[in-house]
Design a protein that fits this description.
Number of strands: 10
Mean pLDDT: 80
Oligomer: single chain
Number of domains: 4
Strand order of the largest sheet: 7-8-9-10
CATH class of the largest domain: Mainly Alpha
Number of helices: 12
Low-confidence stretches: 1-9
CATH superfamily of the largest domain: Cation efflux protein transmembrane domain
Largest sheet: 4 strands, mixed
């Protein structure tokens, strides 16, 4: 959440609020302990013990919040967020001990000699003021915990709400004693013990759940749906999410087509992470992209096999022919480093053939046409302006094709005393890509046949 939308415009941080809460606990402990000892009220003394343990818990929260805000380091690659969950667990355990002590003393007084309790008005006023103060503090803690995603502050807010109810019980006990019901103070103390024990048990249960990596309810399914909606994702594998402090950490495995390049896989990962971040801003997820071939797509499976061989730099013109008897004949063009010897290239393609026969048991023949990989950069020059007559003739031949609407562009390049023509022709946008490629091939053959001085022709069609 943006700091401008947080309570106090970002000034009221979890650490500042935790320190302020610690100071309040110190003052309340002194007040309750003093009044409890003076009046002899077990209810007030139990509240003082409760507040003393709150003081310890608030100290935990201050330390935990400071630790949780530390960035990840080599020893803690997932950050320090769980320090807050650990503080919440510690606070719950301390409160359980306090509840047990209060209950023990209440039962002891109930079964033993009665203890004189002075229900003074200042004691009643102290408990009324405590309830009001705790209500304000619980509201501030809860708002800040939600705004900053702080489990330690959320635990503190839950504890403050229990304090309001327990203070109300002590207040009722003091009023009862003042009205002549001596057992009311003991009943109030036992009520405090029950309320504190219930709140502490819930706190321990929730904190322990997070510390043992319980998955947040419904989050994994929601993340799975978010990832599955990203174009290019074929399948969503394992998705795991756990809480760490106020955030969530997770990992996921997704499958994509096996012919995807490294750059393409990186772009897909970025798209998936962006979609998850938009839908789940509190989740940091690690992603693994795996290849997955479609069994019915035989050409794709051929490409996937070739992609596993380092020497095969490019595979194209792949044809899978099914013979009348059901057997397969595979043919393809493979590009390998141009400086390889023919023997090395033959060994590489022999390995490709072996892997293809393993992938396709019904293969009876594999033909691999070898091509050298093009150099990274070639020297050349644009000579279109030098040969305008040739450029016009090329356009005339291209536009003579019955399906070509117009010749958009011609560029003539000279490389090592060879002339290469680059042609762009216009076709209707409704034609299929397969038919468009057939037109490109026809244009290239026509230009090479009618203009022998062209060493190479690269035709491209556009709508």
């Amino acid at each position: 959440m943006d700091a401008s939308r947080r309570p106090g415009g970002g000034w009221l941080t979890p650490q500042r609020l935790a320190v302020a809460s610690l100071a309040v606990d110190c003052c309340m402990l002194l007040a309750k302990l003093t009044v409890g000892l003076v009046t002899g009220s077990l209810g007030l003394l139990s509240e003082a013990a409760h507040t003393g343990l709150d003081l310890v818990a608030s100290g935990f929260a201050v330390v935990a919040i400071r630790a949780a805000r530390k960035p990840a380091d080599p020893e803690h690659p997932y950050g320090h967020g769980r320090a807050e969950n650990l503080a919440s667990l510690g606070e719950g355990v301390i409160l359980l001990i306090a509840a047990a002590g209060i209950a023990f003393e209440g039962v002891r007084r109930l079964l033993g000699e009665p203890v004189e309790v002075d229900p003074a008005l200042y004691a009643i006023g102290l408990m009324a003021g405590t309830m009001l103060l705790e209500a304000v503090r619980a509201t501030a803690l809860l708002r800040t915990a939600r705004a900053w995603g702080s489990p330690a502050l959320a635990a503190g807010a839950q504890n403050r709400l229990a304090d309001i109810v327990s203070s109300a019980g002590v207040l009722a006990g003091l009023v009862g004693v003042r009205l002549g019901f001596q057992w009311a103070d003991i009943a109030a103390a036992l009520l405090v013990a029950v309320l504190v024990a219930r709140a502490a048990a819930m706190l321990v249960y929730r904190s322990a759940d997070i510390l043992i990596d319980r998955a947040p309810s419904g989050v994994e399914d929601a993340v799975r749906q978010t990832i599955a909606a990203v174009p290019g994702v074929r399948r969503v594998g394992a998705v795991r999410v756990r809480r760490s402090g106020g955030r969530m950490l997770g990992d996921a495995r997704v499958s994509a087509r096996p012919t995807l390049s490294v750059e393409g896989a990186q772009r897909l990962s970025q798209d998936v992470l962006a979609a998850v971040a938009a839908a789940h801003p509190d989740l940091d997820i690690a992603l693994v992209v795996e290849p997955q071939s479609e069994q019915h797509n035989l050409v794709e499976r051929v490409h996937a096999v070739a992609a596993g061989l380092e020497m095969i730099r490019d595979l194209h013109n792949v044809t899978v022919e099914r013979e009348r008897d059901g057997s397969l004949h595979l043919s393809m063009h493979a590009k390998l480093p141009g400086k390889m010897t023919l023997g090395e290239a033959a060994a590489a393609t022999a390995e490709l053939e072996r892997l293809l026969r393993e992938e396709f048991p019904g293969v009876v023949r594999v033909d691999v046409h070898l091509e050298p990989l093009e150099p990274e950069v070639v020297a050349g020059a644009d000579v279109t302006e030098v040969r305008p007559d040739l450029a016009r003739e090329i356009c005339r031949i291209v536009e003579a094709h019955p399906e070509v609407r117009a010749c958009r562009d011609v560029e003539l390049s000279e490389r090592a005393e060879e002339l290469i023509a680059h042609v762009v022709a216009e076709l209707p946008g409704a034609v299929t890509l397969e038919h468009a490629h057939a037109v490109e091939t026809a244009l290239e053959e026509r230009l090479r046949r009618q203009l022998p001085e062209l060493s190479e022709v690269v035709a491209r069609v556009a709508p």
